Structures are given as structure tokens and as C-alpha cells.
């Protein structure tokens, strides 16, 4: 059954911004809106700015997974080992158009540097902290949005192409086990009984029962925006172009010439955050990992859980209004037009892996993941002003980590002891 989406709340025009604000949040994606909801709950008057609208960035059509078991950073020797194989497949999980290589090179070098064992251990510890906090805070965020009924404890099923691939994944499951994450490996008939409809070529899988999903990322993000607007937050359609610290606040210029002064500012502009930070003197190596998917309204099959085709870098996500197939990683920056052949390549593979899948009539999408080279977000204050807090760079995990991030931002702004160690997430760590 196709579910009608809620309409995004109306946004005020940029010239409606008052001269003075309490808190301005830049970005109406899931991170900015979660921060706004938490700050509002703490009694702050919040204004959220976005130049495109609510959930028009990466938060619009992601894979809907609350991937609480994903504590292994992408920047790891495991990924480096896969890169050569992936690069030889032009429509495979990873692509880097040659023209973008010079721009991407500094980020790639930092990525390789982050694959050293000491940093991988630090990243795992920090991701485990973030995920534990996410597990604790997610129910609060979804209650603030009033969408508790749109959370689904579906679990996930990771699938392997071969026994060799399953064996290679063993070390990563040992790490998860050490962090208290439960899972169950399934083989042959047990696997096919658990997940009917799979191609018989699959003989190994891992079920993670603690994985959750939302009904649809756009739906929950829009409803969250409606909820905070209903409680008095102002949502304005405006593009922040520059910030200037003042003795008692922050001056914020918006495109078109408007200016407002805020007590505090949160920069949560996803993959577009870097120029704003740079203008404040913070050089943060943010890049984008572009991902693609196709949403099938009549997929012809019903899945109870998210399926992860890890050897191919994509997932199948059952949503309230269909089945979404996608993922992938294209390092092509913010400006290049989408190459939807990447979405179609994943769909073709999905048809092979799920033979009953009806791939007709899908809706294609491309989104910009905001990514730092060490696979950790930035959550911390600008060196230019303690009144500017950064909350961006959540890469593949922004939906999962939104509530934890909002909790940390609220703690930072209140001068409270943060719930987790923020050193690995500091903006000046690079
Ligand atoms: C294919 C794909 C699948 C994914 N699957 C998952 C998943 O299953 N689970 C998960 O946890 N994560 C997933 N992610 C990652 C997740 O979508 C992102 O990490 C998350 O959406 C980032 O949220 P954000 O609010 O930081 O950024 P965005 O949602 O991109 O929001 C940033 C907003 O800032 C606005 N903005 C930018 N510049 C300005 C400015 N100067 N002034 C005003 N506004 C501005 C933009 O218009 C945008 O609306 C996936 C991503 C992709 C691409």
C-alpha cells in the first residue's frame, strides 16, 4: 500500500528574520532538526535556516537504517584491501571520476593515514560511544517528533557472496562482539528459511537483531520539522553565507543581504558546511561521498528487514511506501551532475540476488553524504568562537547518530559534561 507523505512545513522568507535571535541552526536536515529539537526542549528559542527546504539534502532518501551495530570505520585496512577490486568495476561500489582526483587527493591521503591501526582503534571506540548514546537517545528524539510508531525493530541481514567473504568478515564481527553487539551467523537452509526469496547462490549471512529502521527518512524528518515548528521554532528559507563572532553573539549574513545576530549558532549544513567553517578560520577536510538509490513502489516482494549486500556496497530497505535499493560511493564532489547509471547497476544486481524483484518504475535519487577522512563526524566548538558549534560529517550514519549528536550539542551549549569523550570528534583534530 502506498502511504501519502506529510507535506513539509511552510518556511518563512529570509527577510522575515528578526534582528536578534537566541539560537540559529544552519541546515534543516536530520542533524540540524534534531539539534533544534533538543535545544528547544532545553528552553532555547530556535531558528532553523535552510536554502533548499526541509530534508532536501542527504536526509531525504537515505536507506532508513538505524545502524547501531556499525561501529567499524570505513577508513580501515579492510576497505583499502577492497579498493583495487572495486575500482576495476566501473559501476561498482566505489568510483572516483578522474577529473575530481586532484580535488579529492588531500582527503584521500588523510583517509589512508586514518587507516593506521592506532587511529582505527580510536575510531572504533568513538563510534561505539556514539552508537551507545544513539541507542539511549533515539527514543527521546522520535518522541519529540511524535513518530514513535514509525520506528521498526526490523533487524538486518548481511549477505556474503562466498565463504571466503564470510570468513574475511570474521574479524569485524569479533570487534562487534567485544562491544556487546549481538548477531547470529546463518548458513544454507537456515539462511534461506530465515530470508525467503534470496538467490540460491547465497550460502552465508549474519542477522543483527538490534538494527532498527524508520518507516521512511523523509517522512520522519518532515514530521520532526513540523513538531518543532508547532512548538514555536521558526523555519526560514535562507542561505547562510558568512558568520562573524561578536563579543556577545555571532553575526550571521544570509544570501540577499540580510543579517541577524544570534546568541549561539549551530552549523549543521551537511556536505555544504565547509565554506562556513573556513570563513571562521577552521580548516576541516570535509568531502562528500555521493550515494544513489532507486525506490520501487511495486517491488513484487516483501522484505521484513534490511538486507545488506556488503560485497557490492548496497542495501535493500523496506519502507512504508516501497522498497529502496541503493548505496554505493562516488567521490565526485558537490557540483557534478548525478550519474544514475550507478543506481541502475545496483538495481540490476539486486534483481540477480532477489530473483522475484520487480524493478520496473522506480524513482531514482542521489544524495551527498558529508564525510571526514577518519569516518567520524565533527561535533565541537569553532576556534573562532565558543558560540559556534559544528555538527556535521556523519557520512553513512547521520540518521542513526542524529539524536546522539543533538544531545552532545545541547550539552556543549549548556556547558555541561558531555555524555561521551568529544576529543575524537574535535573540529581541529586534522
Ligand atoms: C544513499 C544513502 C544512504 C544512506 N543511508 C543511511 C542509513 O541507512 N542510515 C544512516 O544513519 N545514514 C544514512 N545515510 C547518511 C545520512 O543520510 C546522512 O549522514 C545525513 O542525512 C546527514 O544529515 P545532515 O543533516 O548532516 O545533512 P543534510 O541532510 O544534507 O542536510 C544539510 C542541509 O543543510 C542545508 N544547507 C547547506 N548549506 C546551507 C547554507 N549555507 N545555509 C542554509 N542551509 C544550508 C542543505 O540545503 C541541507 O538541507 C545515507 C546517505 C546516502 C546518500
Radius of gyration: 21 Å
The low-confidence runs, each spanning 5 or more residues with pLDDT under 50, are: none
Determine the strand fraction and express it as a percent band. Answer: 25-35%
Unique bound compounds: flavin-adenine dinucleotide
Question: Concise description?
Answer:
The protein is built from 11 helices and 20 strands. By secondary structure, it is of the alpha/beta class.
Write a structural description.
This protein is an alpha/beta fold. The protein has a domain of 169 residues: D-Amino Acid Oxidase, subunit A, domain 2 (D-Amino Acid Oxidase, Chain A, domain 2). 32% of the residues lie in helices and 25% in strands. It contains eleven helices and 20 strands. Strands 4, 6, 7, 8, 14, 15, 16, 17 and 18 form a nine-stranded mixed beta sheet that branches. Strands 1, 2, 10, 11, 12, 13, 19 and 20 form an eight-stranded mixed beta sheet that branches. The chain is globular, with a radius of gyration of 21 Å. The N and C termini lie far apart (48 Å). The mean pLDDT is 96. Bound molecules: flavin-adenine dinucleotide. The site of flavin-adenine dinucleotide has 42 residues, from helix 1, strand 2, strand 14, strand 17 and strand 18.
